[in-house]
Amino acid sequence: MGPDPSTGTSRADYFTGLGGDDEFFGANGPDAISGGSGNDILRGGAVQDVLRGDTGNDMMFGNETYGDPLDGDTARFAGLSSEYAISGGTEYAVVSGPDGEKDKLFNIEFLRFDDVVLALEDGSHLDGLGSTGDFDAAERVALIYEAALNRDGAIDLPGLNFYIEVTERHDLTDKFLAADMMNSPEFATNFGDPDTLSNEAFLDRIYLNVLDREPDAAGRQFYLDLLNAGRISKSDALADIAISPENTAGSREILMSLYENSEGEWSFVRDDGMAVA
After folding, report:
1. Which positions fall inside the DUF4214 domain (predicted)?
2. CA-CA 20 to 30 A from 267: which of 23, 130, 153, 154?
3. For residue 29, what are the domain limits?
């Protein structure tokens, strides 16, 4: 479950969270929102806002309609800019702090640290990503789960949480995850029995259901040669296609919206900033 939301007014509002997971929506005034401890969801409104997640893995949403490059929403961080790793741009940025906590930022134009204010450029943290090392366990599981079970974004949370928990505990590989999901009745319903499908038919169905297109000749032949030679398994092929630049681009909303509460339960947050149970 997501945290309970609190909503501001058309005036300047100030929110500050205490312990636990908070959800604040600033509405239409110039707001200052501080999440406090916990994994918080902070959303500004129609004018410039200052959002501060504080401790925890937070999600901060700004406003995407500013016309003046000098205007925009600001995410505030304690400490020096050199203590943080910053990836991405105004569409989607990830800021990792010295304590290992990670904040997700959406439509945020400025990052304010104790020593400097940085302006983000256009772009997304996901630009150019598409290999296993680019993603944490939860993101890897989400990509493979959607690809293997053809959920088209409708991922059931109990199943997602189960696979994330066991992957983090046992450091499961992409191949193991793909193979385990391929053994499910749901996979057989969507794709057919992987043990009886020919390599050609398997690839055709994976391309169509995962990438929503017919396989290109070169890509199909690449995987087919490896499968026929026994150099990779069908689960290898599924995992490789699931965690590829093309599928990463097609699964941006899933990756961006992943949210973990303080109790370690994963869910998704809609693009309007509200939590999805």
Report:
1. 178-249
2. 130
3. 5-125
